[in-house]
């Protein structure tokens, strides 16, 4: 681990200024559940860590005109029990529930999850985001059982590490981004946050030096229902093999609109637009869920060792849809 | 791992119980036996210890006005561990785990995976269980830190520790302190937890010997479920 300064700003503007200094060679510290892994392996070597946990506005969950706004320093255990989230955003609660560790739940944050670096073992071993050697992808010719099955024709073959992005995208969430100047604020849909990098230096998100996520905003219209299904390999703390989050408006048993988003299958969260479109006008049944899941994984181009993930992802989509069907059927004759 | 300005090799220990107790007084450490390596190294003479006490007091005053940026060099900080204040000098990059183990000789929390996977370094900070390998010591100023040592102070053995003993919930024992602290924190938040909840909550702690059955039995008993539960 390199030497670094530690900064504890008390306002958002101060944080942006502190992050922009040192030519932007700085890092945001919130939960720290992954940052220290990167520091220990010298995968990042920031000149300064900027701790967001003392900024009051970032520690709050507040009601907005159309939903809730969650500060970047709010931890997952707080979200799980928060009255403003109770009884809604089922897709989000399911992800928190799948993180089998009280330590990660009491340290981790939504914004931190969205900024996670890939868990690709080539990246973690120092081969870079793209793991290229002499113009060839080490992933393509090497061990790729956990790598991408979708969106993997470009140089990036890793899978996005974010567990919450599929749920947040399905729920139509937006990010409030502060920086690089102290008074600059950008609002961005979560799906526009992620990047499939073309170079090692590009990173996995649109965040520029000096920028940070201050809040996650989730709209709530009262009629959208959501669900998540993560395929987990172990009972303990682990990353999903594939995950799917879905949201839909169902009336009189018929799907009026839907979103289907898969995670851990591509270098970014993967939105299955045509599968979601195919669900509209249908009833949520075992058969429709299965055929829509087939559509969702139809474009898959698995690598040499990960064809099995196609079935895993298909199952995730199908079971997420069936969870959604359970919810709508318990609401009194709608399914 | 780190080059410390107060590296133990820089000042070999020389002498004396009197110096040790003076050093302990300087850091305000009244827990355990009142003895730790930092104080021992510092206390190579009453005069030096007295100087150290004065320095620590001045720094503690300076800390009351928290600077926004802590420079990338060793700084005096104060940590509250198991109810006692400790003054120590660490770089910002020193984790809470390293500060506990290397500077304060509290070696209950273990340094194992360094990848926030195994839970052996679990401590409680302001009531919440955290991986001490993923918290900076400087982050923990002004917070209350509880380590496994705090659950066994004197005659007051915590019921979680007693349940671990009763159910033989350790084999090699290296993961045990992390498990004990995690179970303690988990039950504070979920006092009536069932087995399913316990398995989910404690998935962040690994035992290579595989003594999970004993740990589960201990946790279940503390949650008010007997052997039948």
What structural class do you assign from the helix and strand content of chain B?
alpha+beta
Categorize the overall geometry of chain A.
globular
SSE arrangement of chain A, N to C = EHEHEEEHHHHHEEHHEEEEEEEHHH
What is the CATH superfamily classification of the largest domain in chain B? Beta-grasp domain
Residue windows where pLDDT falls under 50 for at least 5 positions of chain A:
none
Number of helices of chain A: 12
Average per-residue pLDDT of chain B, rounded, comes to 79
Overall mean confidence score, pLDDT of chain A: 96
- Helix percent band of chain A: 25-40%
* SS strand fraction of chain A: 15-25%
Distance between the termini of chain A: 55 Å
Using brief descriptors, characterize the structure shown.
heterodimer, A: 335 residues, alpha+beta, Uridine Diphospho-n-acetylenolpyruvylglucosamine Reductase, domain 3, Enolase-like, domain 1, 2 domains, 5-stranded antiparallel β-sheet, 4-stranded antiparallel β-sheet, 12 helices, 14 strands, 29% helix, B: 229 residues, Ubiquitin-like (UB roll), DNA polymerase, domain 1, 5-stranded mixed β-sheet, 6 strands, 36% helix, 12% strand, disordered N terminus
In short:
The complex is a heterodimer of chains A (335) and B (229). With 335 residues, chain A is an alpha+beta fold.
Question: What's the helix and strand layout?
Answer:
The complex is a heterodimer of chains A (335) and B (229).
Chain A (H helix, E strand, L loop, with lengths): L4 E3 L4 H9 L5 E4 L5 H6 L7 E4 L9 E4 L2 E5 L4 H6 L8 H9 L3 H6 L2 H5 L6 H4 L7 E2 L2 E2 H4 L23 H6 L3 E5 L6 E5 L22 E8 L4 E8 L10 E10 L2 E10 L6 E2 L1 H7 L6 H12 L10 H22 L6
Parallel strand pairs in A: 1-3, 2-3
Antiparallel strand pairs in A: 4-5, 5-10, 6-7, 8-9, 8-10, 11-12, 12-13, 13-14
Chain B lengths: L16 H11 L9 H6 L3 H18 L5 E2 L4 E7 L2 E7 L5 H8 L18 E4 L2 E4 L12 E3 L12 H8 L9 H14 L5 H7 L10 H11 L7
Parallel strand pairs in B: 2-6
Antiparallel strand pairs in B: 2-3, 4-5, 4-6
Helix pairs in contact in B: 1-3, 5-8
């Amino acid at each position: 681990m390199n030497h670094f300064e530690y900064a504890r700003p008390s306002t958002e503007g101060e944080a942006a200024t502190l992050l922009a200094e040192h030519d932007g060679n700085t890092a945001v510290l919130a939960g720290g559940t992954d940052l220290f892994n990167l520091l220990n392996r010298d995968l990042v070597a920031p000149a300064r860590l900027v701790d967001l946990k003392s900024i009051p506005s970032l520690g709050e969950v507040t009601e907005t005109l159309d939903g809730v706004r969650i500060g970047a320093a709010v931890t997952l255990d707080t979200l799980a029990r928060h009255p403003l989230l109770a009884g809604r955003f089922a897709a989000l609660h399911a992800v928190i529930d799948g993180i089998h560790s009280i330590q990660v739940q009491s340290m981790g944050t939504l914004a931190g999850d969205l900024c996670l670096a890939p868990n690709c073992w080539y990246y973690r071993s120092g081969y870079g985001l793209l793991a290229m050697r002499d113009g060839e992808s080490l992933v393509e010719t090497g061990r790729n059982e956990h790598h991408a099955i979708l969106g993997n024709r470009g140089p990036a073959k890793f899978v996005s590490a974010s567990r919450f992005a599929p749920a947040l995208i399905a729920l139509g969430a937006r990010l409030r981004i502060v920086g690089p100047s102290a008074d600059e604020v950008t609002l961005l849909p979560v799906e526009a946050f992620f990047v499939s990098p073309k170079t090692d230096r590009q990173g996995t998100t649109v965040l520029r030096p000096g920028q940070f996520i201050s809040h996650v905003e989730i709209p709530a219209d009262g009629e959208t229902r959501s669900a998540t299904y993560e395929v987990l390999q172990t009972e303990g703390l682990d990353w999903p093999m594939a995950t799917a989050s879905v949201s839909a408006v169902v009336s009189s048993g018929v799907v009026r609109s839907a979103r289907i988003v898969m995670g851990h299958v591509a270098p970014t969260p993967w939105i299955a637009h045509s599968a979601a479109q195919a669900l509209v006008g249908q009833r949520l049944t075992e058969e429709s869920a299965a055929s829509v899941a087939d559509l969702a994984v139809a474009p898959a181009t698995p690598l040499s060792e990960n064809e099995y993930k196609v079935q895993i992802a298909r199952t995730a989509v199908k079971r997420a849809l069936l969870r959604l069907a359970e919810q709508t059927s318990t609401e009194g004759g709608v399914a | 791992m780190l080059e410390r300005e107060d590296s133990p090799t820089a000042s070999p220990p020389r002498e004396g119980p009197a110096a040790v107790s003076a050093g302990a007084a300087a850091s305000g450490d009244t827990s355990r036996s009142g003895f730790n390596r930092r104080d021992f190294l510092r206390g190579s003479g009453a005069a030096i210890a007295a100087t150290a006490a004065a320095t620590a007091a001045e720094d503690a005053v300076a800390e009351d006005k928290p600077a926004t940026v802590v420079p990338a060099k060793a700084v005096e900080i104060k940590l509250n561990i198991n109810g006692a204040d400790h003054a120590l000098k660490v770089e910002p990059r020193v984790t809470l785990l390293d500060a506990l183990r290397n500077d304060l000789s509290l070696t209950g929390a273990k340094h194992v995976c360094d990848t926030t996977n195994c839970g052996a370094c679990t401590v409680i900070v302001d009531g919440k269980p955290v991986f001490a390998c993923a918290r900076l010591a400087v982050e923990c100023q002004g917070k209350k830190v509880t380590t496994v040592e705090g659950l066994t102070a004197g005659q007051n053995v915590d019921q979680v520790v007693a349940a671990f003993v009763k159910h033989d919930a350790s084999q090699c024992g290296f993961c045990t302190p992390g498990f004990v602290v995690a179970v303690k924190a988990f039950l504070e938040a979920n006092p009536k937890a069932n087995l399913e909840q316990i398995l989910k909550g404690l998935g962040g702690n690994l035992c290579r010997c595989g003594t999970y059955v004993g740990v589960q039995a201990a946790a279940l008993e503390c949650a008010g479920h007997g052997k039948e539960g």
